Amino acid sequence: MNIGDAAGCLESLGNDTRLSIFRALVRSGPDGLPVGRLQSRLKIPGSTLSHHIAHLVNHGLVSQNREGRVLKCVANYRRMNDLVGYLTKECCSDVGGCP
Amino acid sequence: MNIGDAAGCLESLGNDTRLSIFRALVRSGPDGLPVGRLQSRLKIPGSTLSHHIAHLVNHGLVSQNREGRVLKCVANYRRMNDLVGYLTKECCSDVGGCP
DNA sequence: ACATTATTTCTATAGAACTAGAAATAACGA
DNA sequence: TCGTTATTTCTAGTTCTATAGAAATAATGT
Q1: Judging by DSSP bridges, how do beta strands B70-75 and B62-67 pair with one another?
Q2: Residue B25, CA atoms < 13 Å, CB-side half-sphere
Q3: Residue-wise pLDDT tens digits, B55-83
Q4: Which of A60, B26, B75, B98 is the most exposed place for a label (fewest CB within 10 A)?
């Protein structure tokens, strides 16, 4: 991962609503959750939710696959792993006790 | 670290300029760098730089200590460690291969 | 074809963020 | 005290971002 992608992912997660969405997806495991399920859980208007999900998808943190009428959203664990790897490697230091 | 602090840190680092500042500080080790040094390295106007540094300081990612006329900025490794810990614990999953 | 459900795109608006010049403050040496 | 260097605060302009209602699209069953 390069610095631009990292900043993009960080910006995506650096918003309370989007971080909540992402956490909900991570917790729900590899099966993910339909958009409507996120909507009822997080209690936000569909258009707003859709906007934020698109942001996460654009930065590779979430992927979607349609199952009939329902759109399943899944956290992209590999992408998140890459991000954490970048932060650990490029933004931490042996000196300071980072992993 | 709680979700609010995490989102704040992520938002801080989710900006190309601030991420560059932070990386420069991390790379320079526990001695850090003076503001002026960052300015000449990153080639950005003082007021803009000051604005971004204040943002990082406000979110606990950078601390400052004056040495005479020079203000030294130092990356807060512990804070960064906490952030990475939060992401690993709350936003990753065993299933997906995250650490 | 139509009704229903699920989700997105369009559109507008209010507020926040980024940028940077100019003026102000801080620290120090002469 | 004055001048110089280092940095911040003030101010303003422009550009992004978040929000959400309304209309449009997609998918399915009847």
Answers
A1: antiparallel
A2: 27
A3: 999 999 999 999 999 999 999 999 999 99
A4: A60
Cross-strand partners of A65? A72
Q: Which domains are present in chain B?
A: 3-90 (1.10.10.10)
Which residues are CB-neighbours of B43 under 8 A, at least 6 positions away?
none
User: A79 to each of A19, A55, B16, B37, how far by Cα in Å?
Assistant: 15, 14, 19, 34
How far is C-alpha B31 from the geometric centre of its chain's CA atoms?
A: 14
Q: Distance of CA B72 to CAs A82, B25, B31, B59, B76, Å?
A: 31, 10, 8, 17, 12
Q: Give yes or no for CB of A53 within 7 Å of strand C.
A: yes
- Using DSSP's 3-state secondary structure scheme, residue B34 falls into strand
Interface test with A, best of B25, B77, B79 (most A CBs within 10 A): B77
Which residue has 């003082």 as its token pair?
B46
Closest CA to A73 of A34, A28, A27, A44: A34
pLDDT, tens only, B29-60: 999 999 999 999 999 999 999 999 999 999 99
CA distance B46 to chain A (A): 22
For tokens 């540094």, name the residue: B53
